[in-house]
Amino acid sequence: MKKIVFAVSVLLFAAVMMVPVFAGGQKDAEAGPAPYTIEVTGSTSVAPLMETLAEAYKSVVPSVTINVSGTGSSDGITGANTGVAELGMSSRNLRSAELGYGLDADTIAIDAIAVVVHPDNPVSDLTLDQVNGIYTGSVTNWSQVGGPDNPISVVSREPGSGTRGAFEEIVEFKDQLVAGAIEFDGTGGVRAAVAGNVNAVGYISLGSMSDEVKSVKIGGVEASVDNVINNTFPIARPFLVLYFGDKIDPATRSFLDWVMTADIQKSIVAKKGYVPVK
Amino acid sequence: MNKTNRKRIDTAVRHLFRVVSMFSVVALVAMLFFVFYQGVVPFFTPTAESVQVVVENIGTITVNGTSYEDQRRFISIDRESEEIRIEFDNRGNKVDIVIAIDMHAEEAEDRITFPQGIRDQVENPELDSYTISWPGMIVGMEQRVHINIPEPPYNFFDFLLGMEWRPVHRKLFGIFPMIAATILSTIGAVLLGVPIALFSSVLIAEFLSPKPALVIRSAIDLLAGIPSVVYGFFGLMIIVPFIQRLFGSASGSSLVAAVVVLSIMILPTVVAITMTSLKAVPDTYREASLALGTTKMQTSWFIVFPAARSGIIASIILGTARALGETMAVILVAGNSPQLPRVLTDSVRTMTATIALEMGYASGRHNEMLFSIGIILFIMIFVLNGFIMKLQHKLAEAE
How far apart are CA B129 and CA A166, in angstroms? Predict the structure, then answer.
């Protein structure tokens, strides 16, 4: 008797847990032809662009749902490799230990990294060498780069971030960040830290710029889409989508083809403040 | 209907309880196993079994006599082999190089030796990882060979006592500054927060009349329910700029900001438990003391307080544990620089902050090292818990 009661209660419990599964299945069956969900994971810098693209694609092909989660570039590369997600997003080039996974990498946009300061900071032009000096610790006061006599508060992203990796590579201070630099995860954190401190300097994706912070010219060149296209603004990196070319679903392939069309590159990618690749 | 039915329900509920209560044990064991399994790996095993080669934009390549066609995955080199011989065709010229490897060398630079002719084509983007480039047919199609040498197991003492946390390119995983930051911010929060909490709980429990006591009590209870990220946000917007102005430092994100925020956060924990244990002291103690002619202050300080001490110590330890484990609020105000603080206004990074900041971005050994930090944190909590148990045992004996 006891055992039967036990078995029944376990079954009931299991049945309750299963309800959402069946409910979900029914809903799917009602939707249009060949419903398909594309899982996309990775870089927090690419995620805002990918979300906009996903939303726009929904109105073009309603049967395809695209789930975007921003967790970090390394996570995106690992996710695409292990099959957790069909598409991975990365805001940096693959490291040599990751190249051997055999993933295909498509560049869907190019993003400039803007060096930003507080709007009240009179400094508006820095050279790449000065930026390097600030981030490696040889420049510690704004007066050394033509500003007021205030100490510089260096703000950076956390180690492993795609934005930081690209920035360190271009400004040439790989793992040489000055001790005492403030580190935040996410573009929003860096922006808020710079917006709240007149002594601060940080770097963020050009697509995430806002009026709270002021973008600094690098060697006299403004951070803008046009200056990246004509190759005068030096700090730019690719936004990559990673996948196994022989494994992806036709629905995913047609989404990628749609993203790469000149029309979409112009109407969505360029409008969001990124550099189109077509 | 009745008796048997009731019995059945009882049995079912009992089984349900048994399953549910087993859940916490299973969860704990699973979590510990997971953390330990991942966390001890970097100290015992190298990052890979053998040297790995990856090629880019090279159609046909021969490595140590084996020919590969459009190879995109890793090419593993035999463990016994002391050289890598690479042959391929670069824009019509035949490339044939022999690279010597010695996996047992102490220094990273000695593990690989490139032939004289190609040294200026070699880059070393990260420790134990080399890239050799040849010009391609068009710009952007450079032919590259990447060589990844397995890193030997990491020395545990370099991990525990190392001063540098440079996880990406230089692969240095020293967490001593983080251990120091965790301990310092916890001690600071206890020194600042516990006296405030003890004084206010004595006031509420012993002196105030029911109405104002209720007001303060509800305020403290509400404080306990505020999510930690809100504390952090408050700290970021109010305390950090205030500290910056007060000390005139470059940035207010600092150890002292973390201490202030943490001390506010531990208030409700300490106050709630202290108050409960003060209230639990029988009124006969107070009456006896007052009857002997002491003042109310003397009574609460010398009679009630000592009588409630085991509860008070428990509350302090719980507050300490809260400060030790707090992550989100600290990330927002401490500045997260992995350096040993020399002054109170230096930016610091705690161990929990490191895990939360870098988990999504870490790969390979860096990722495993975050689990190792988790083990160290677990050990710290374990020691703290053992300390309480011993203390409570001693107190119980003394009474």
Answer: 18
Distance CA A263, CA B308 (A): 74
Question: Partners of A37 in the beta sheet?
Answer: A65
Measured between beta carbons, the chain B residues lying within 8 angstroms of A99 are 54, 56, 146
For strands A236-243 and A104-117, give the pairing. Answer: antiparallel
Contact state of B336 with A175 under an 8 Å Cβ cutoff: no
pLDDT in tens, B253-293: 999 999 999 999 999 999 999 998 998 999 999 999 999 99
B169 touches chain A (CB under 8 A): yes
Task: Kindly list the residues from chain B whose CB atom is less than 8 angstroms away from the CB atom of residue A1.
Answer: 8
* Distance (Å, whole) CA A180 – CA A75: 27
Cross-chain residue pair B336–A158, CB shorter than 8 Å:
yes
Cβ pair A199:B251 closer than 8 A: yes
CB atoms within 10 A of CB B176: 17
Beta-carbon contacts of B214 under 8 Å, excluding residues fewer than 6 positions away, are none
Terminal-residue alpha carbon distance, chain B: 53
The closest alpha carbon to B45, from B126, B179, B150, belongs to B150
Is B101's Cβ below 8 Å from some Cβ in A? no
B134 to each of B53, B76, B90, B290, how far by Cα in Å?
Answer: 16, 22, 7, 92
Interchain contact, B12 vs A9, CB within 8 Å: yes
List the structure tokens of B87.
Answer: 């042959």
In which residue are the tokens 């053992």 written? B386
Q: Report the C-alpha gap between A201 and A221 in whole angstroms.
A: 18
ipTM greater than cut 0.90: no
Whole-structure pTM value: 0.85
Contact flag B253-A182 (C-beta cutoff 8 Å): yes
Q: List the single residue in B with minimal CA-CA distance to A181.
A: B337
